[in-house]
Amino acid sequence: MCTEQQLNKTTFIALEFTIQKNGVWGELVGLGRSRHPTLWPVLAIIYCVKNLHLYNTPPTSPIYHYHNDSAWNWNNVNTTHLHWATSALANQTGVTADNSSIKSLQSSGDMALFFADVDLDKICLLGHWHSDEMLHYLPVQAFPVVTPLAPLMVCHRCFRLIPKNRLG
């Protein structure tokens, strides 16, 4: 357990995923400072930990629990909560509740890294992709990807295709 002062100085956290659909148990995923004033996952986790401390929960309480004042019990966060949070941040992120789901978090994060020109191998490693299947989920027809391609296609020198070999 750490103090509130230590929490406020935190710039990197590691989350342990005890159960995952890929069958990897107990995996740690690190998150660092994003340099954005509000879209910083470390701040969100700090807020969650402070809230857990406020209600004197055991240090082993999952971070995804929250206190419901009307029921006085702990509940799991679900897709409804994700939609609420997405709606609250829609003006900053451009993501609406209609196009968000738990599954879309990974593909949208991967797409953001792709647009930032992060190496595909790094994206696969961070996203725990075990093949090039990730490429089927990324909308490669997105505006930032295709816009610079058309000028490249017409600005290069003329070329000729090799004719098919006609036997017999």
Describe, in plain words, how this protein is organized in 3D:
The strands form two sheets. This protein has a two-stranded antiparallel sheet. A two-stranded antiparallel ribbon has the order 3-4. The radius of gyration is 22 Å and the shape is elongated. The protein has helices spanning 4-8, 41-54, 79-88, 90-93, 102-115, 120-126, 134-137, 143-146, 149-155; strands spanning 12-17, 27-32, 65-68, 73-76. The N and C termini lie far apart (80 Å). The protein has two domains: 1-77, no CATH class; 98-168, no CATH class. Helices cover 41% and strands 12% of the residues. With 168 residues, it is α+β, with helices and mostly antiparallel strands. It contains nine helices and four strands, in the order αββαββααααααα.
Residue fraction in strands: 5-15%
**Any idea what the shape is?**
elongated
The count of strands amounts to 4
Q: Over all CA atoms, what is the radius of gyration?
A: 22 Å
Low-confidence region ranges = none
- Would you tell me the overall average pLDDT? 76
N→C terminal distance: 80 Å
The computed structural class is alpha+beta
Write the H/E string, N to C: HEEHEEHHHHHHH
Count of distinct structural domains: 2
> How many helical stretches?
9
Spatial order of the strands forming the largest sheet = 1-2
Largest sheet: 2 strands, antiparallel
Short key terms for the protein model shown above:
168 residues; alpha+beta; two-stranded antiparallel ribbon; elongated
Quick recap of the structure?
This protein has 168 residues and is an alpha+beta fold.
